[in-house]
Amino acid sequence: MEKKTVNYTLKSAADHDEDDDDLVDHPKVPGWFSEHCPIWPGQAHFLKVEKILFQGRSEYQSMMVFQSSAYGKVFVLDGALQLTEKDECAYQEMITHLPLCSIQNPNKVLLIGGGDGGILREISRHASVQQIDICEIDTMLIDVYKKYFPGIAIGYEDPRVTLHVKDGNAFIKSVPEGTYDAIIVDAFDPIRPDHELHEGPFFELVAKALRPGGVMCIQAESIWLPSLDIEHLTAKCSQKFKGSVDYAWTIVPAYPSGVIGFLLCSTEGQFVDFRNPVNPLDPNNNMGSNGVGTISADDEGTKQQVNIQEEDDIIDH
Amino acid sequence: MEKKTVNYTLKSAADHDEDDDDLVDHPKVPGWFSEHCPIWPGQAHFLKVEKILFQGRSEYQSMMVFQSSAYGKVFVLDGALQLTEKDECAYQEMITHLPLCSIQNPNKVLLIGGGDGGILREISRHASVQQIDICEIDTMLIDVYKKYFPGIAIGYEDPRVTLHVKDGNAFIKSVPEGTYDAIIVDAFDPIRPDHELHEGPFFELVAKALRPGGVMCIQAESIWLPSLDIEHLTAKCSQKFKGSVDYAWTIVPAYPSGVIGFLLCSTEGQFVDFRNPVNPLDPNNNMGSNGVGTISADDEGTKQQVNIQEEDDIIDH
């Protein structure tokens, strides 16, 4: 789960290592964590920190895990709250099932970002899916999630999952045209260095990687944020995807404004009505939440390690 | 709008007059306001205060109005955030139109609490309504809203409105059986001193005041609050109202968890399906938001002062 629209410069109560110039207008409270959210100034949501469980920095980003009083364990990425145990389900379920329930029998699914594994866990609940590719560049992030959030990282245990350790932009370029039924983008800014996602070629590459009538779902901010221009966004995406475009939202109390939105797009082909799901989720298929135990007898029957394809193994087209 | 489930003891940055014993576990930041929300400890949502516009105390409660950076003007009652200019519409519209759109041609409507006037503004948008009674005990609260939130208190300008200055419990006892088509309760704790709303006789009195197949809507907390037991609540209400019972929610970012719920009940009589409105709101009838200008030519044609019936004028039955 990567929820970054800007370079957050937020700090937790435990961060003391950088200068505080950008925090002049943002309150700090010892023993409490808060994002400094420059996209909606003048407010701050604080969580009480019971214990800091992990702090570290990978090649790409800084990470912190803490035990909160109110939301269970919390994962912080470059100072931005990524997810909490209490409400991660609301986000992971919606970003996954909105696209996957909108088409018949999704088979091949790509996840870009989403290194925590929660979306993998949810994709796993669709019995029709045979191939789940995830492109996540930061293996340290995955390791931290596996250690501190096993109920989320459990998504990696599904034998259908293949991890591609690569930059999302480079990976999407390498995908043969029409490969996937669904692509979920859990990184509003999946390409480094930062750039404008909607104006660049990324969406066109995603559209190209989808089969006709395939679907994409991407996190698209809160409807309460003044910076969000849904009309502009959907118009842009209509041009690029050439199928249907819709906007959805759900409630995630730990996020700013308590709401997060999703942009849903389908490519030219069979019409996709995102408001009326055609592929109901089997309520008995809870593989994601209780491990491989409910994989049907038709599956290989062995729990296998997640397949990892290192960056160099990918052939760029 | 009275959003109280407990005795909030919250303090703003501007409150210095009481002891701070109960704030040991709650952060304070100079120049920022936050509720101290004992029903969900370990988190705090802060709003930056640009200017305090009003502070005062009526016979019943303390009030504060401040200009925030992020949410426009904010009204605080006994330390609890009641509403903000930015997101009040989300609350007022849902608590009003959920019940009023669920029945054909609502005629007589009672509002208990809701002294700010925003729900009156929304009720006014229903052309079928001929009588709007509001029971609000605190006239100072009304005056403060009229001065600082004219776009909300505009609801009082509708000539169909009669204000009853009385305690909500006493008033509901005085209502003849079967009087109202709809009753909206905008005070989770409408009776002072504090008591258990769901266990006491209040709901039975509301049901009695409704016609057969009439509807009630009351604020019913956030689905994210651990204290909310929707099953228990709806079971209790099924017993008391004997019609249909449902639970709804909407997003109000300034409230704890960003979500607020509503309990909807109908009395024995014609079945009410709260999920499929039968009385669509006329989108051209925006009387509430732009004053009396759009009252139809069939109305009296004169803007009149709100009718006020003082407490002593009410005959107790």
Automatic annotation (TrEMBL), chains A, B:
<feature type="compositionally biased region" description="Polar residues">
    <location>
        <begin position="282"/>
        <end position="293"/>
    </location>
</feature>
<dbReference type="InterPro" id="IPR029063">
    <property type="entry name" value="SAM-dependent_MTases_sf"/>
</dbReference>
<feature type="region of interest" description="Disordered">
    <location>
        <begin position="1"/>
        <end position="22"/>
    </location>
</feature>
<feature type="active site" description="Proton acceptor">
    <location>
        <position position="186"/>
    </location>
</feature>
<dbReference type="Pfam" id="PF01564">
    <property type="entry name" value="Spermine_synth"/>
</dbReference>
<feature type="domain" description="PABS">
    <location>
        <begin position="30"/>
        <end position="267"/>
    </location>
</feature>
<keyword id="KW-0620">Polyamine biosynthesis</keyword>
<feature type="compositionally biased region" description="Polar residues">
    <location>
        <begin position="1"/>
        <end position="10"/>
    </location>
</feature>
<comment type="similarity">
    <text>Belongs to the spermidine/spermine synthase family.</text>
</comment>
<dbReference type="InterPro" id="IPR030374">
    <property type="entry name" value="PABS"/>
</dbReference>
<protein>
    <recommendedName>
        <fullName>PABS domain-containing protein</fullName>
    </recommendedName>
</protein>
<dbReference type="GO" id="GO:0008295">
    <property type="term" value="P:spermidine biosynthetic process"/>
</dbReference>
<keyword id="KW-0808">Transferase</keyword>
<dbReference type="Pfam" id="PF17284">
    <property type="entry name" value="Spermine_synt_N"/>
</dbReference>
<feature type="region of interest" description="Disordered">
    <location>
        <begin position="282"/>
        <end position="317"/>
    </location>
</feature>
<dbReference type="InterPro" id="IPR035246">
    <property type="entry name" value="Spermidine_synt_N"/>
</dbReference>
<dbReference type="GO" id="GO:0004766">
    <property type="term" value="F:spermidine synthase activity"/>
</dbReference>
<dbReference type="GO" id="GO:0005829">
    <property type="term" value="C:cytosol"/>
</dbReference>
<dbReference type="InterPro" id="IPR001045">
    <property type="entry name" value="Spermi_synthase"/>
</dbReference>
<dbReference type="InterPro" id="IPR037163">
    <property type="entry name" value="Spermidine_synt_N_sf"/>
</dbReference>
<dbReference type="InterPro" id="IPR030373">
    <property type="entry name" value="PABS_CS"/>
</dbReference>
